[in-house]
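Students often ask why inverse folding is considered easier than folding. One informal answer: many sequences map to the same fold, so there is more than one right answer. In these notes we will look at a single instance of the problem. The structure comes first.
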């Protein structure tokens, strides 16, 4: 079955008792057991819940098979991956990553005696040179956040395989519609389900998807032991989000492409960061690993300082000033003061998160309305 057919029919079996075409939401926290010390498929909802399982089944299918685990948030899912490691291990992450992941790695994971280094995963030689004998996990994003950098996933996966290091990828921006990292050699895919999968700014969730059963079992053990699982109401909304994911992502990508082209020819804008533009340094790689479109996220730099950039972000009417992304409504933000405020000024300078940078999450509104909205804000 094709992607969008699986999104609707896998993990969404009709209810055998009533014939309801949408599976019921199972809110029960506990399940009757066949006997003392005997276990059915479900016993306690932290360990497993039918509604959560439905969502996991659909998502695993969309990522190309394997096993999915659903979490309370994207950060809970990423934390679970880091808990595979022990004191003395090392994590090497790409330089263009979500600010919350940066904070987790540098302010929480490091407390367990796990060393963390960031290096540009777009530059394979530099990235590989940052691997040490203690490196146990590589962590990348593509497109990266907030600079929309493109990492060659196949190439990084080859390095990881050769050195027997796990490769985890935060694929929240690309979604399985555009990139399926497991098929390109990654070991673990992470999603902030809060973003495109949920798609309507009304749920928090996270997910991990893996191909290897042994790895799945290790992650499941940590998830069950630490407890940050997705709730059934969120799982229901996430399943509903998956059904329209492909349609939304393709349409959002179309509008983002048109906005990127429009911004690129505007003299008030100094730089547009969008992998769909042939001028983007990662365009060719993106084309080879993204399925026919480049996503709904784009960044650009205005000519001006922090205050001018802030003013532009505060002047749009349709683009709402908010962090997060991936929903039907368009959002605008200033990474330096919002999504990446957890980087100090020196780190922002090192990683190219300038004061003039603006990040857009393009929603499902009409291109013309979004363009006019940005035009008005840039003129402000
Ligand atoms: C790329 C990316 N990864 C991970 C996260 C964290 O996800 P959550 O907010 O669901 O914990 C975010 C949230 O903004 C994100 O943008």
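Output (designed amino acids):
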């Amino acid at each position: 079955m094709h992607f969008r057919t699986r999104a609707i029919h896998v993990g969404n079996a009709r209810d055998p008792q009533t014939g309801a075409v949408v599976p019921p939401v199972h809110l029960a926290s506990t399940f009757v057991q066949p006997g003392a010390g005997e276990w059915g498929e479900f016993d306690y909802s932290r360990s497993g819940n039918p509604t959560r399982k439905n969502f996991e089944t659909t998502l695993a299918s969309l990522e190309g098979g394997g096993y999915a685990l659903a979490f309370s948030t994207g950060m809970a899912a990423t934390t679970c991956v880091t808990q595979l490691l022990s004191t003395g291990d090392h994590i090497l992450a790409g330089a263009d990553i979500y600010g919350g992941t940066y904070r987790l790695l540098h302010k929480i994971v490091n407390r367990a005696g796990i060393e963390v280094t960031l290096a540009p995963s777009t530059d394979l030689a530099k990235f590989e040179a940052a691997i040490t004998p203690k490196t146990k996990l590589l962590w990348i994003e593509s497109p990266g956040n907030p600079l929309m950098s493109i990492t060659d996933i196949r190439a990084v996966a080859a390095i990881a395989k050769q050195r027997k290091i796990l490769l985890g990828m935060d694929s929240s921006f690309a979604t399985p519609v555009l990139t399926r990292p497991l098929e390109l050699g990654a070991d673990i895919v992470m999603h902030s389900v809060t973003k495109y999968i949920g798609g309507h700014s009304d749920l928090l969730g996270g997910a991990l998807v893996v191909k290897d059963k042994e790895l799945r079992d290790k992650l499941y053990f940590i998830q069950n032991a630490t407890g940050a699982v997705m709730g059934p109401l969120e799982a229901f909304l996430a399943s509903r989000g998956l059904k329209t994911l492909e349609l939304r992502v393709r349409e959002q990508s179309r509008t983002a492409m048109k906005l990127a082209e429009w911004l690129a020819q505007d003299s008030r804008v100094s730089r547009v960061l969008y992998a769909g533009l042939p001028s983007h340094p990662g365009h060719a790689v993106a084309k080879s690993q993204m399925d026919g479109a480049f996503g709904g996220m784009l960044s650009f730099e205005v000519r001006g300082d922090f205050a001018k950039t802030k003013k532009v972000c505060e002047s749009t009417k349709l683009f709402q000033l908010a962090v997060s992304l991936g929903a039907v409504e368009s959002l605008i933000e200033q990474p330096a003061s919002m999504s990446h405020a957890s980087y100090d000024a020196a780190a922002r300078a090192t990683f190219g998160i300038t004061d003039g940078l603006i990040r857009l999450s393009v929603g499902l509104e009409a291109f013309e309305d979004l363009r006019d909205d940005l035009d008005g804000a840039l003129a402000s």
